Amino acid sequence: MIKVAIVGGTGYTGVELLRLLLQHPQVELAVITSRGEAGRPVSDLFPSLAGRIDLAFSDVDVRSLATCDVVFFATPNGVAMQQVPTLLDAGARVIDLAADFRLRDPAAWERWYGMPHACPQFLEEAVYGLPELNRGRIAGARLVANPGCYPTAVTLGLLPLLRAGLVDPAELVADCKSGVSGAGRHVRADLAFCEANENFKAYGVFAHRHQPEIVQNLGAVCDGGQLDLTFVPHLLPLNRGIHATLYARLHAPAADLQAVYEAAYGAEPFVRVLPAGSHPQVSEVRAGNDCVLAVHAERRRVVVLSVIDNLVKGAAGQAIQNMNLMFGLDETLGLRHAAVMP
Amino acid sequence: MIKVAIVGGTGYTGVELLRLLLQHPQVELAVITSRGEAGRPVSDLFPSLAGRIDLAFSDVDVRSLATCDVVFFATPNGVAMQQVPTLLDAGARVIDLAADFRLRDPAAWERWYGMPHACPQFLEEAVYGLPELNRGRIAGARLVANPGCYPTAVTLGLLPLLRAGLVDPAELVADCKSGVSGAGRHVRADLAFCEANENFKAYGVFAHRHQPEIVQNLGAVCDGGQLDLTFVPHLLPLNRGIHATLYARLHAPAADLQAVYEAAYGAEPFVRVLPAGSHPQVSEVRAGNDCVLAVHAERRRVVVLSVIDNLVKGAAGQAIQNMNLMFGLDETLGLRHAAVMP
Amino acid sequence: MIKVAIVGGTGYTGVELLRLLLQHPQVELAVITSRGEAGRPVSDLFPSLAGRIDLAFSDVDVRSLATCDVVFFATPNGVAMQQVPTLLDAGARVIDLAADFRLRDPAAWERWYGMPHACPQFLEEAVYGLPELNRGRIAGARLVANPGCYPTAVTLGLLPLLRAGLVDPAELVADCKSGVSGAGRHVRADLAFCEANENFKAYGVFAHRHQPEIVQNLGAVCDGGQLDLTFVPHLLPLNRGIHATLYARLHAPAADLQAVYEAAYGAEPFVRVLPAGSHPQVSEVRAGNDCVLAVHAERRRVVVLSVIDNLVKGAAGQAIQNMNLMFGLDETLGLRHAAVMP
Amino acid sequence: MIKVAIVGGTGYTGVELLRLLLQHPQVELAVITSRGEAGRPVSDLFPSLAGRIDLAFSDVDVRSLATCDVVFFATPNGVAMQQVPTLLDAGARVIDLAADFRLRDPAAWERWYGMPHACPQFLEEAVYGLPELNRGRIAGARLVANPGCYPTAVTLGLLPLLRAGLVDPAELVADCKSGVSGAGRHVRADLAFCEANENFKAYGVFAHRHQPEIVQNLGAVCDGGQLDLTFVPHLLPLNRGIHATLYARLHAPAADLQAVYEAAYGAEPFVRVLPAGSHPQVSEVRAGNDCVLAVHAERRRVVVLSVIDNLVKGAAGQAIQNMNLMFGLDETLGLRHAAVMP
Q1: Subunit contact C338:D292, Cβ cutoff 8 A
Q2: Domain boundaries, chain D
Q3: A342 lies within 8 A of chain B by CB
Q4: What is the dihedral sign for C-alpha D126, D130, D133, D138?
Q5: pLDDT digit string (tens) for D214-254?
Q6: CATH fold of D2-125, please?
Q7: CA-closest candidate to residue D148, choices D115, D83, D100
Q8: CA gap A232, A228 in Å, rounded
Q9: Which of A54, A90, C82, C126 makes the best surface tag, with the fewest CB within 10 Å?
Q10: How distant is the Cα of B186 from the closest Cα of chain A, in angstroms?
């Protein structure tokens, strides 16, 4: 059994981690911390877990965390980097669901996240936890940076095209739509029901922190200097789900893109490529760990559609997929359940 | 392993049965039938199951059904009763998720469902599959009538009061609200998105078929001749969930109702009684098999709040709970997963 | 032209008042106050009004309010009662959309609202602004207490039965469901999108402040000492709309209730009685000022269904209806627009 | 008073036309036809109009239509073109809300709409009813082709850039999202509540009929031969609203795009350009006739955000705006009401 701790489990990512870890046959949930809720039974804050979990939130105590095999950070950005060095020293492994270890360049991190990095010496060692990209390195990692939700959907969608050198990296568009849980469990005016319901809007045009993360991922497989991606996120009036609509321009119109995608992902347990002409729906991945893709091309224009559940493949599910890899388990353990429909 | 067949698996109850059976460790899904979709892969109709199931829908063939240990009917009312005698003769057990075997009185069945009963001789043998009511008899049953969604929420909510003889059975009100999936996977004008979204309405006042089923359940534990229940169902603009608000009048104001409910359900794996003063939410049982209750009393008025997921405890989950009982398994097998939040 | 001021126009009731007053042919919007937003253009806070209004929020200044013909208070409970004496002295008329002048008994007010009343001497003069009940007195009023949203739906639904003495006042149930805007434009955890969406719950069982208001309304037309009403409000996952499902017990089963309701409301411009057997929907009154009713009876049980838009007939629209009466205008002026469907 | 007929008023466009025409001070609604609903009171099909309209649907009778000043067609594609020649001969004017007269090239029409055009001789005379493009010609028109909903949002969004020659017409992307009412009032499986709710998907990639209409509009103001637009529509889980996210590439990064847009639309009554850095929301135009735009640029990338209500500015409201122009009325008559929020 893997002894697991969660730091900061009071957000939607936290409750989703709990939901999934509770059904994992090789996990023993040992510690879950929250400064604000210390002492409160977890099922009191999250009645959806009542009867399934006996733990209470505890204060952060590095010694008790260090007795665990793996520590998940489901904290705001900037928290994990304060504690990671101590935990790694103590022999625990760490999976950070926040952004602290996603960008390899500390200057970029400081620019986008507004604070200096607390332990830049670990950025080199940290492995970006997208199994479809880094499966081998994740297996040997002590420290995994779990990808952002948008970067997961966009990277999986565009990777085959860029790897095969089929499209112009200087003309990419990622028009992304996320359910409201992607914004976290904050009490914020624009996330109030009457504001978000029956509404739709873009936000953070040219200013979203997932932009450099996507560019880092895609730049690694093509001429990064040339890469130019316009990324626009939007807020969807639903709880869960990301739909990325990705636009690129083919160097030549001849390619059999369907074959390219099927070859790229044929062996992947959690990426499905739909038949040509299909349109994936966010409902078909609700509460499941799949990424579903479809590719459309006409002349030199190509459109890739990519859907995930932002809380599963875009956060907690992918973190568990990474844990499975790090501990030599079947990668799909605890994640084989079907999506919830309707 | 229990060899399982599903007859008529193309509705929401069918896809939910599949979702839950696929995660059941003792089940082998052998057959799933559909007249309209015979030959079509199940995951083609239900992309939420893609990668999790290889079966295709087949035509109804009683011989192949009869080779299974248990046959679930997720068909429209009136179908199961045509095939049950043959299947029971062949040694299979049957769990009917439709209404064919719920009412003990064939005349009542004909009146409410508009057709004569095809095998009234089995109504006596059929066990009403509410484990909290009939656990022992379900364990030995060949034929289980899985309860309706509203009757599950209402019966569990009112049973302790009536059993204890605390309230007047002649003055009961059940104001019930159901998510749209309760109406089935029909293509119907009033279930179109723009009609049901941002809308709410009552329907079938004094005319809903779940009325006699609820009355049969409650009448069995009190002076049934006196029972008078007003039942009004409403359509909620959400996918899943039932909330029953139940009103009764105490014979005397003194009773400690909280203790009554905790005693009634303290040993139940899927019924939770909230602390006094609580308000259960349908979101806390989403995709899970729990029924959550809260009791409020003031002077002689008592209000019971009862929530379930209409597709799980109100249909497919309860059917699997019954299957577990019928086959001597742990009653909670395959049903221990937490609710999906948000 | 009627010179109008609004005090505290930053909530949903405020923006709805503005929307409706802007389309009123006899109104000149002169002042709109907000302590927190003073100086900010109204259309900056409410982009839905952009291009339709040039005003900015101002600080509360009793002198400028006193120059108006009528002052609407769209403030939290307890604010209007501080300013009403001065404004009435200065010759303005007041319509309070909060609860300050709804209860005639200052002790009841203090008990339910948790503060002593600042000007109990005006409770006698204040007219409860339900035109269907008090049309004549509203026309001559200086101070109108605009009814609460639930009390509007419930009172209009039960009044004909009680007036005609047809039902037992000691056994009334009002099961009410309101869209989220009824909770106001607060930033509160349980009103966050992911909490309220795909969710439904009761709240404030036996403890909602609209209970004494409803009882006061209904008690006035029957033997109030005997009146016993169980009122349970619920939160609907939609923006606007109230549906009240009302249960009563007939003294005798013979009454032609349809005729009773049609007689009661035949001359009312904003109350519609549907044909027998109907089920009104909240969507049919969305953004309109109608209350739509349907009556169902079976033996001695009667169920009345009542729908309104909580922000229009339940707040701002009814306030304007009252203003029209107070100023001798056609009662329907500015309120004749159809509901918005879908 | 303008005597108005509506042909085919049983869809969402029809009920919206009725809602808006009923509040128009210069309109007399004389005839509304429906083959399927002839004889049925309009308010019976559309309870949202109850008490506001006395008309019943009638069979199509060209003579009675011909007595009207203007006939609106809210019919499926291919119906108006059968009747327009007769009506124009009889002296009526026609506003077609379907697509029959939108494309100037009858071959293109046949290709995209799957049937030969019944009166191609009128395509030359028909005026494309986008007032911001064709105000002068609309005023003198007998026959107006009311624009599609997506083409309205996309054309208004991209027009200033293309007119000013600032962007490369060969690299345009229009990622568009529409509420479900845009699909019409059809009873279709994928438009059922449980399918569309909590869901989001693209549809008709490279195959939507609004593509040639947008290209025709934009090609007219730039080198049309070069124009290459990728248009992807998506289905939003809400009733009303379109959000178009438009991507283009500047020839040079220097332009003051904010000034370009403000100059283009400063005098327009129904197009608002938000301050730089803004993100318009579909909720701020709900039930109103505005198009709201925001422009974002970074280096050579430009993103334009454009929102409308698909049933108002995208259909019925724009049709009335056209009617006002055709009859010499103030263009905003009957359309000045504010948006409905929340």
Answers
A1: no
A2: 2-125, 150-310
A3: yes
A4: positive
A5: 999 999 998 777 899 999 999 999 999 999 999 999 999 87
A6: Rossmann fold (3.40.50)
A7: D100
A8: 13
A9: A54
A10: 13
